[in-house]
Design a protein that fits this description.
Layout: E1 4-9, H1 14-19, H2 21-29, E2 32-38, H3 42-45, E3 53-55, H4 63-80, E4 90-92, H5 97-105, E5 110-113, E6 124-126, H6 134-146, H7 163-175, E7 183-186, E8 192-193, E9 196-197, H8 203-211, E10 217-219, H9 226-232, E11 237-238, H10 244-252, E12 256-259, H11 263-270, E13 275-279, H12 284-287, E14 294-298, H13 306-317
Parallel strand pairs: 1-2, 1-4, 2-3, 4-5, 5-6, 7-10, 7-12, 10-11, 12-13, 13-14
Antiparallel strand pairs: 8-9
Helix pairs in contact: 2-6, 7-10, 8-13, 10-11
Length: 319
């Protein structure tokens, strides 16, 4: 089957991009060749999948720059596929008005969810169902694009890691003397959920209890997050500057990942690492990491106690 180019606008958060991977794979399995447009880090994150990822002009760019990029991609797609302009040829995963407007101004026939009065801008605007998991939302949009009955989503994301990224991850672990069966902590959380903090208040206390188990504990902070580890989590091996592709390879080697509601938790689950997700206000039915090796601990409106989380850790590490 000849692959048909399909321009797909990705969302702007690491977790959302990861949760959209099964939808993109479904499109590819049905003969489409995704041409992805997203944040600059998305190319590294999806490196193992082999899909072209085009870095979208930054937040301070003008509308005409973003439209020009899409027009260029459209022209390239028309060169490869003479029928490109005669069919639905783009999909919009974000629900913003601007993402649909850019597609329309670029002359693309985009399919997306009916949000923010986008109906006149999209070739097809599909009704969205609230309350379900985000992965299912992206998956069902792909099914609707394909005009097929919704299929059950896969039980795991199975995000691929490029061989070079895995090699880099292994080199970083070796350079820092990290022993096998290490545990990764992700005590970071970007943004708020319904105006409430997503960071477990007892994470630093938990880390000290975890270190007493005798395993190496590792963390890979993002830019500007290094001080959180050095100041609040002494004793943890800090592996800074690891890009998202290599980060996936590193998480793949972990015995366990303990995390707040943050992108690396989704990345860990996507590469098959065991994940213990400590959630506060975040609704797990919508945003929990996706995969068979994921366990959620949540006691909202309270936070879980350190002893409870440690008991879950010990149980997962002895299985």
């Amino acid at each position: 089957m000849t692959s048909r180019p399909l321009i797909v606008r990705l969302r702007n958060w690491v977790g959302d991009v990861i949760l959209g991977v099964p939808a993109l794979q479904l499109l590819q399995d049905h003969g489409y060749a995704p041409q992805l447009v997203g944040a600059r880090w998305a190319a590294s994150l999806l490196n193992g999948q082999g899909w072209p990822v085009h870095a979208r002009p930054g937040a301070n760019s003008r509308l005409r720059e973003r439209v020009a990029q899409l027009r260029h991609l459209r022209a390239e797609a028309c060169r490869l596929d003479s029928g490109f302009d005669r069919r639905d040829n783009a999909m919009v995963l974000p629900t913003s008005f601007s993402s649909a407007l850019e597609m329309r101004l670029a002359g693309l026939k985009a399919v997306g969810y009916a949000q923010e009065a986008r109906g006149l801008l999209l070739k097809r605007s599909e009704p969205i169902t609230y309350g379900g998991h985000a992965l299912i939302s992206y998956w069902e949009l792909a099914c609707r694009f394909l005009r097929i009955e919704p299929l059950p989503p896969p039980p795991s994301i199975a995000l691929a890691t490029h061989a070079a990224d895995q090699q880099r991850a292994d080199e970083v672990l070796a350079a820092h003397g990290v022993r096998q069966d290490f545990v990764v902590i992700c005590p970071f959380a970007g943004g708020l959920f319904e105006a409430q903090q997503k960071t477990w208040p007892a994470f630093s206390e938990f880390t000290q209890a975890l270190l007493r188990c005798g395993r190496d504990v590792v963390s890979c902070p993002g830019p500007g997050e290094e001080a959180i580890i050095t100041e609040q989590h002494p004793g943890v091996k800090l592996l800074a500057g690891v890009n998202l592709g290599a980060y996936g390879g590193l998480l793949r080697r972990a015995a366990l990942v303990v995390s707040n509601d943050t992108g690396p938790a989704h990345l860990a689950a996507a590469v098959g690492a065991p994940v213990l997700s400590v959630l506060g206000p975040t609704k797990p039915e919508q945003w929990a990491p996706w995969g068979p090796a994921v366990e959620v601990v949540r006691r909202w409106p309270d936070w879980p106690a350190v002893d409870e989380v440690m008991a879950r850790v010990e149980a997962k590490l002895t299985r």
